[in-house]
């Protein structure tokens, strides 16, 4: 640690002296800037420091160091950890403890962290609760007492107050309200109220009276649970779930016996429409599309079209409800096709939608959503959103430090961390179990503060067996604290109680996805917080969020890392004998290096673990290559410095030829859904419906080709999130 003694961390200059505001560059400007930055960087990289030179031998598609520099803020950025002032490699605990191991410094050659000047944003607000009691509604007294005693709810939420009377009148509705505002009961209560009143009484053998389509299995189970509770006094009505993962044979047997309220994922229902004789829709009175935008994102359009056709063929007269927390173009287009003279219900404050629903009834084909609705999202008032700019090399230690800070050093914290693929979830889950919980490659077995509660890690993604998925979902729902690492399989609709923190370790591919992910906290009027971790080159994403009325405040990486000074298990040798000293930036840096070294030592402990980390890195690069076109100027795979990114997988060097092979795969079948393709699919969906009717096709849908599993839009969406590819079918 020779040079460390004199190496002082460069303390950032006051922000006031800094840079210009974010202005979202138009693609052409961005390209010009990128080119200029590239030229400058090429010039400045001609004589890289010794370590950089070895990294520069990596494949050319991988960017130079400087490409990670923020293109929009060049020249104005502040330095967080300055390469010049940190003769740093020498200060790394890693080198000190493992003299033979060649490992680059965490704090050298990082891109500058731009100052984040956030544009003024006035977020949209919706009030969650009303003072109205359920008794005020015209409901069966047993239903009211079930809501009060079984569900333990007394007041209506705003969206329930608006929706339930409209749905009780028998109208179709397009319901939009923020995450965690009680949309499930907004349709379940009127549905149960109407079905319990059917005369003669519904019989099990009658088959489905209501069909609820949801995008994921977990959501299917959750909705089933709610329906089942509401049906307690009405035992003659039988609910059931079809969701894949279960043997078709046993599902067929249950269908044969009879299910009156059928909750299903679209893919599985289509399978049964095609292969199960007892699949009848002649009594359907309710068709509900929940989490409509997610249904579309996952490429379920054709499945939904087929289902609509099948139901229309047997029972065209029915009530249709479409629900979503975000009103995207896709949702309004699906509403056009599936709803009949719908009432649009929304509780945005200060918007026209606050009017009484009846006065807002839209007759005839509903027009596209007002642009204001498409531009902004309502975020729960109790949700505090943060963003941290973290250079690629420091991502892993920053994530680990943040998890420790919240879930180890603070009581009763429940956190969900989102990743872009199953491989990433698996990798981080195993790595954290092995290193942070005292596994074989552990940081310091048993040395994490013993007084604090045990840290628990769970994982959820679609490559898991359904049984395990369900068990994890239930365990995390019940637990008071812990960390759930997951893909977007958990982003929508899931109601996991008392989640206090949402961390987005990989940025979402759309603002709607962002809103749904953070919506797993601060539900139903509670408080919650979120953290989005971005690389310095991705800082402009904050502007992109602001343009959708999403406001984030900055959390400093140094503050995240400073938690490592709270426990001596991260102590480097240098500070060994010094007790109770104030934590300075140098100490923070050394402790972060100790933690990084633990990760690297574990990853490099065997060939198997190295290849496992490489696979995870490859999966990260692939997912990165699938950001939609409109975000490519922020998230472009060429902006990644693979040597630095590799470090965040505990790898000491970037694997050779990684970018080339990853991109090749991406070309084959890894594209994120492109909104422009969605616009085309609007016509596709409408055409599909029209053509099937005009061809006189019946409900069988025999002429409808199943989407090509390899190349169809659904597979594209699934490839982006392999979790769901396997999960849904
Ligand atoms: N009237 C109410 N009083 C108290 N709690 C309620 C009420 N209505 C719903 N809840 C609870 O609020 C939570 C969120 O409800 P729900 O999952 O239906 O929200 P949502 O609007 O569908 O959210 P998302 O858009 O994320 O799917 C659930 O735990 C539910 O039990």
TrEMBL record:
Pfam families: CTE_SPB4, DEAD, Helicase_C
Catalytic reactions of this protein: ATP + H2O = ADP + phosphate + H(+)
Keywords: ATP-binding, Helicase, Hydrolase, Isomerase, Nucleotide-binding, Nucleus, RNA-binding
Keyword ATP-binding on entry: yes
Source organism, top-level taxon: Eukaryota
Annotated Helicase C-terminal domain residues: 382-561
Top enzyme category: hydrolase
Compositional bias (Low complexity): 24-35
Record InterPro entries: DEAD/DEAH_box_helicase_dom (IPR011545), Helicase_ATP-bd (IPR014001), Helicase_C-like (IPR001650), P-loop_NTPase (IPR027417), RNA-helicase_DEAD-box_CS (IPR000629), SPB4-like_CTE (IPR025313)
Subcellular location: Nucleus, Nucleolus
Entry keyword annotation includes Metal-binding: no
SMART domains, per the entry: DEXDc, DUF4217, HELICc
GO cellular component: Golgi apparatus; nucleolus; nucleus
Region (Disordered), start-end ranges: 1-107, 661-729
Alphabetical list of PROSITE patterns matching this protein: DEAD_ATP_HELICASE, HELICASE_ATP_BIND_1, HELICASE_CTER
The Helicase ATP-binding domain, residue ranges: 164-345
EC numbers: 3.6.4.13
Chief place where the protein resides: nucleus
CDD domains noted in UniProt: DEADc_DDX31 (cd17949), SF2_C_DEAD (cd18787)
Stated role: RNA helicase.
UniProt family annotation: Belongs to the DEAD box helicase family. DDX31/DBP7 subfamily.
Annotated protein name in UniProt: ATP-dependent RNA helicase
Gene that this polypeptide is encoded by: DDX31
């Amino acid at each position: 640690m020779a040079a460390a003694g004199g190496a002082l961390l460069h303390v950032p200059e006051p922000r006031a002296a800094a840079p210009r505001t974010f202005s979202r560059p138009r693609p052409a400007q961005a390209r010009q800037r990128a080119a200029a930055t590239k030229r400058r960087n090429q010039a400045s990289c001609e004589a890289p420091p010794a370590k950089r030179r070895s990294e520069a031998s990596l494949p050319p598609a991988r960017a130079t160091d400087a490409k990670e520099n923020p293109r929009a803020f060049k020249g104005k950025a502040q330095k967080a950890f300055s390469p010049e002032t940190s003769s740093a490699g020498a200060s790394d605990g890693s080198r000190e403890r493992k003299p033979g191991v060649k490992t680059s410094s965490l704090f050298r050659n990082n891109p500058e962290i731009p100052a984040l000047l956030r544009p003024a944003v006035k977020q949209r607000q919706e009030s969650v609760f009303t003072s109205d009691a359920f008794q005020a509604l015209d409901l069966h007294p047993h239903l009211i007492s079930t809501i009060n005693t079984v569900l333990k709810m007394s007041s209506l939420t705003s969206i329930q107050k608006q929706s339930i009377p409209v749905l009780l009148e028998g109208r179709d509705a397009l319901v939009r309200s923020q995450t965690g505002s009680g949309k499930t009961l907004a349709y379940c209560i009127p549905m149960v109220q109407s079905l319990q009143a059917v005369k003669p009484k519904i019989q099990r053998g009658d088959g489905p009276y209501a069909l609820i389509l949801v995008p994921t299995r977990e959501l299917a189970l959750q909705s089933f649970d709610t329906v089942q509770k509401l049906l307690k006094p009405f035992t003659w009505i039988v609910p059931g779930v079809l969701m894949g993962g279960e043997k078709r044979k046993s599902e067929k047997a249950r269908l044969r016996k009879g299910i009156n309220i059928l909750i299903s994922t679209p893919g599985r229902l289509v399978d049964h429409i095609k292969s199960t004789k007892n699949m009848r829709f002649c009594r359907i009175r309710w068709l509900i599309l929940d989490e409509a935008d997610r249904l579309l994102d996952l490429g379920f359009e054709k499945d939904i079209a087929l289902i609509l056709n099948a139901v229309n063929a047997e029972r065209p007269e029915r009530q249709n409800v479409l629900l979503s927390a975000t009103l995207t173009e896709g949702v309004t287009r699906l509403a056009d096709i599936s709803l009949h003279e719908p009432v649009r219900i929304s509780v945005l404050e200060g918007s026209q939608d606050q009017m009484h629903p009846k006065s807002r009834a839209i007759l005839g084909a509903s027009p596209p959503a007002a642009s204001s609705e498409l531009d902004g999202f309502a975020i729960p008032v109790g949700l505090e959103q943060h963003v941290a700019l973290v250079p690629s090399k420091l991502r892993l230690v920053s994530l680990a430090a943040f998890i420790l800070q919240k879930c180890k050093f603070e009581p009763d914290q429940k956190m969900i961390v989102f990743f872009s693929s199953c491989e990433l979830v698996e990798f981080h889950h195993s790595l954290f179990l092995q290193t942070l919980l005292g596994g074989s490659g552990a940081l310091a077995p048993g040395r994490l503060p013993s007084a604090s509660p045990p840290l628990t890690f769970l994982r959820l993604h679609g490559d898991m067996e359904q049984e395990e998925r369900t068990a994890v979902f239930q365990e995390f729902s019940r637990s008071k604290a812990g960390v759930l690492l997951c893909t977007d399989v958990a982003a929508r609709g899931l109601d996991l109680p008392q989640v206090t923190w949402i961390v987005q370790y990989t940025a979402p591919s759309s603002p709607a996805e962002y809103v749904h992910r953070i919506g797993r906290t601060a539900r139903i009027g509670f408080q919650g917080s979120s953290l989005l971790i971005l690389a310095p080159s991705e800082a402009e994403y904050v502007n992109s969020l602001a343009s959708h009325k999403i406001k984030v405040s900055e959390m400093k990486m140094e503050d995240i890392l400073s938690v490592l000074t709270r426990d001596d298990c991260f102590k480097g040798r240098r500070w060994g004998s010094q007790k109770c000293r104030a934590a300075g930036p140098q100490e923070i840096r050394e402790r972060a290096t100790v933690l990084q070294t633990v990760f690297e030592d574990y990853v490099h402990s065997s060939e198997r673990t190295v290849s496992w980390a490489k696979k995870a890195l490859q999966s990260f690069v692939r997912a990165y290559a699938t950001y939609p076109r409109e975000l490519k100027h922020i998230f472009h795979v060429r902006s990644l410095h693979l040597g630095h990114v590799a470090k965040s997988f505990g790898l000491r060097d970037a694997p050779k030829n990684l970018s080339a092979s990853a991109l090749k795969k991406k070309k084959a079948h890894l594209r994120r859904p492109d909104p422009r393709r969605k616009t085309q699919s609007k016509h596709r969906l409408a055409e599909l419906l029209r053509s099937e009717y005009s061809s006189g096709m019946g409900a069988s849908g025999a002429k409808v080709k199943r989407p090509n599993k390899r190349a169809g839009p659904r597979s594209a969406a699934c490839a982006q999130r392999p979790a769901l590819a396997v999960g849904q079918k």
